[in-house]
DNA sequence: TCGCTAATAT
DNA sequence: AATATTAGCG
């Protein structure tokens, strides 16, 4: 299915240089024939060591590698591992056993895709996608930090200049205050320093805090300990640090606090209304629905908290009157601090209001896979639908010039206000 | 420098 | 939808 232009000259996938590695000669031949039909330039290999020699000999000799799992001498997995670690080539792994795909280790998993043998023409005809992906990722990796950096610093100096100019001209207060500048500075520093750690390496961004129920309870505990008037972000932060929550920033707390307070406000308004109602209608127990963990948290609870992601959504700590137990390794000696009567039982209610319909982890995974990240992580898609026609379209859209925007917007992003969520 | 709130971005 | 960041004020 190579694309042919007006003059009958084969385009893009044609000429793609592919190295196929398979212990079975017949497989090699079959594959070769298929690939040649698609105008690929095929090189065959029966042994991992030959493949490695070829690959190491000239890093630009191939665009993509297709590799069987069962090879003589060196295991296919091992070979792929080496390829992935040594060179930046897209790899498609093939195996006659579909279950084998789950054997792939993390590193490999993220870097290669899977095809079940016997390979069919329709699958093979799509492997150029991997090359596109890889190139796109390279391009983005190369491009993004750079432009961001320039933009930010440019903005920074622009702001600074306009600031100075304005100040000099009018003697009035600059339009941009120090804090804004600081924020920009911080960001540009973030971008220019590449000493990122762990999670930041993967997507280039710091992971966002996930307010699991457990984390939230610690937060509430801290707030309650501090009491009214003292429950400001900085102090809450200190408290939580004392409770062994070390990764939060003041901004995290401030943000959560803001939401928390809005919630309390809403709840107190609600309970006031209830009270009035009850006063009129004699005695009616006030129904307080249990706290529901935000859906997102249910699935991602592992990100930054100790809560396993299989948390039981049915029972929650708000069903009891105890706030939370101190962590066993906590330095706090006064256990009663954790066992305060809770003045804000209202927080047992939804925060924010939710219909309580928790979605399963699996569903969540799928919905995540439907987001933009899917496009940058081939494997997410590879698991079940990579070789479906829809993907062909997407890739075509990305490679070609037709509405690459459409691909993004169709995933339910409302960033541009174009879709309802 | 910090904190608050509302608005907006991701 | 949840969280992060910003603006603008005190």
What is this entry, summarized?
With about 425 residues, this protein is mainly α.
Describe this entry's structure for a reader.
The protein has 421 residues and is mainly α. The protein has 3 domains: 17-126, Rossmann fold (3-Layer(aba) Sandwich), CATH 3.40.50; 141-194; 213-348, no CATH class. It is 48% helix and 6% strand. Strands 2-1-3-4-5 form a 5-stranded parallel sheet, sandwiched between helices. Strand 1 (17-21), helix 1 (25-37) and strand 2 (41-45) form a beta-alpha-beta unit. Helix 2 packs parallel to helix 3 (76-86), helix 9 crosses helix 10 (233-242) and helix 10 crosses helix 11 (250-280). The longest helix is centred in the middle third of the chain and has 43 residues, at 128-170. It is elongated. The structure holds a DNA duplex (10 and 10 nucleotides).
**What sort of overall outline do the alpha carbons produce when their principal axes are compared?**
elongated
Q: Averaged pLDDT, please?
A: 60
- Number of domain modules: 3
Structural class per helix/strand content? Answer: mainly alpha
Strand order of the largest sheet: 2-1-3-4-5
Annotation, overall tally of beta strands: 5
Low-confidence runs of at least 5 consecutive residues: 144-203, 283-291, 296-421
In percent, how helical is the residue content? Answer: 40-55%
Q: Count the helices. How many?
A: 17
* Rg, nearest Å: 28 Å
Largest sheet: 5 strands, parallel
* Ends apart, CA distance between termini: 37 Å
Which band does the percent of strand residues land in? Answer: 5-15%
Instruction: Note the run of SSEs as H and E.
Output: EHEHEHEHEHHHHHHHHHHHHH
